[in-house]
Amino acid sequence: MKIVGFHCGHDSSYSILEDGVPLIHNEMERFSRNKNSVGNSVKFFLEYEKKNLDDIKYMTTNRTGGMNYHKWMDSLNECQDIVEKNGGELYVVGHHQSHAANAFFSSEFEEALIVTMDGGGTDYPDGSLHDKSKIDIDKYDRNAVVTSTTFWSGKGNKIKPLNIIPKNMINLGKDWSMSTSKIFGLGTVRDPRGDQAGTVMGMAALGNPDKYMSYFENKLTNGMLENDGDGSIDFDYLKEEADKNEQNRFDISASLQKETERVIRSIITPYIKEYKPKNICFSGGVSLNCVSIGKMLDWFPGINIFVDPVPYDAGLSLGSSRYVWHHILDNPRIYKTPQNWSPYLGWQYHIKHIEDSMKECSSEIEVMKCDDDYVIWLMTTKKIISVFGGGSESGRRALGNRSILADPRSEENKEIVNEKVKHRQWFRPFAPSILRDYVKDWFVHDVDSPYMNIAMKFKEGMGEKVPAVLHHDYTARLQTVSKEDNEWYYNFIDKFRQKTGVPIVLNTSFNDREPIVETPQHALDCFLRTNIDYLYFRDYGILVMKAWKK
Fold first, then answer.
1. CATH at 75
2. DSSP for 470-506, written as a single string
3. In terms of DSSP H, where are the helices of 219-350?
4. Do 157 and 178 lie in a common domain?
5. How many domains does the chain have?
6. Predicted TM-score (pTM) above 0.85
7. pLDDT (tens digit per residue) in 472-524
8. Has residue 272 been placed in a domain?
C-alpha cells in the first residue's frame, strides 16, 4: 500500500511510502533551481508520477497556513478524488506533528523524547490529527496555534504531545532568520539566495562570544523580535557594528550562537529531569545547528542523540505520511536500516540520460572510461572531483551521491573549493566523510552521524592531519559512512584509506550557490562553470574533463 505526502510551503516537496518504507522524496528546489522553493508539489506529483496513482490509498498534507491551502486547493481536491476512488482518504497533519513523526519514525529508537525547533508552524493544542474529511479552510483555523517549539514522547508506533509552546515565547528559528537578514544582510528561507544561517554559524567559530553577549542574553525567549520594545534585539546597532569590520561580524555571530546554545540547553533540561529519556530525537530547522547538537553529547552524557535526516520543512511530506502509516493506521515500526531510512530517495538516471546530456555540451568536454582507483589517484594529486551516481540525497547535505570530493590532507584544497568552486567565504568549513569504524580514533565521541548533523571536536593531534576539513574551533561536521548506508561510498573511502592511511575524504555538496544538482544536465552545467577538475559518473565509470581550448 502506498501513501503520498505533500508539503506546499517553502521547501516544498512530495514523498511516496510503500508499506511504510520511503521510496521517493523529491524537493522542488532541485528542479526549479531556486533555493527553499515555494511551489505546488501536488501538481508536480500529479504530472510526473501518473503511473503510481492507481496504487495510492492515502494522501497526506500538513497544516502550513490558510493561504497555502487556498492557493493550491484545486490540486488538493484532485488528490481527494483520487484516494476516494481507491477507497482511501486524504489526511491533514499538524506542522510539528509531522516534524516529530519523521524524527522518531526514522530513528531506531523504541522510545524517545522528541524535540522540534524552527521558525513556526501551525499545530493543535492537543496534538491531534485535525481532520480527514473534505478540506474546509474555516475548520482548520479553529483551535489552531502557531508554535515554533514542541515536545513529544514517542513509543513504538505512537507519538503524543508533551508541550506545544506558543510562538511568542520561544522562536529560535525566527531569531536566527531575523539576525541573518537584519544584522548580516544575508538570505533567509524566503530570499532568492536561500537560507544562509549556516554562514552565521560558520562565522561563530572565529569570534569572541562575550563581546556582544549583552545584546542577545535573555532576548531569545521573549518573542520580541523588533527594535521597539524592552528586551528586544537591537538589530540597528548590531548591523552598524557588523558593517565596521569582519571581526565584529565573527564576534556577533559567536554571541548569538552561545546564547542559542544556552536557551536550547535550558528548555530541554527540565524534560530530561522529568522523563529521564535514554534517547532524544530532534527535528525542525534549528536542528541544522550542528554545533548545538554536538555539544549535547557533553550536556547530556549517556543519552543517544538522533537528528531527523530532513529536519527542515522539506521533511514534512515524509513526516505526515509516516504519522498516518504508523500512528493512525496502527502499522508496526520498521527498524532495520536501511529499510527504515535511506537518504538516497531521489530519481535515478540511466546511461541514456547521461549520454544525451553529454551530447548537448560535446564541444566543451572530453570523456574517458575509468574506475574508482584512478579517481582516488587524481585526488591524491590535489584534483577536485565531482561525483554523480544513484538517487540524489534528501536533505541539505550531500552524502556521496551528489558530492564534490577532495583530499582532506591538503590545506590548499579548502581554499580551492571555497574560492574557485563554491564561490563562498574563506572561513566556511567542509565536512569529513569518515568510515564509521574509525570515528573513535579521530573524534572525542564515538557516535553515528550518517546525515552529517553533528559537529564534534577532533582528538588532540588528529585534526592537523586533515586540515582541509578542520574548522577554526577544532571541530568538524562529520558524516559517518558504513557499508549499509552507501556501499559504493564506503568502499571508495576505504580504498582512499588503503592508499593514504587516512579513512576520511573531504565532502561538500555538488553545487555552486544553488540547490544540490539533481540531473546529469545540472551536474554538467555546474562542472563547466566552476573550477572542478573532473566529473565522475560513477555508476558507469565515465570521467568527464573540460576540453582543451586552442
1. 3.30.420
2. --TTSEEEEEEE-TTT-HHHHHHHHHHHHHHS--EEE
3. 235-244, 246-275, 290-299, 316-322
4. no
5. 3
6. yes
7. 999 999 999 999 999 999 999 999 999 999 999 999 999 998 999 999 999 99
8. no
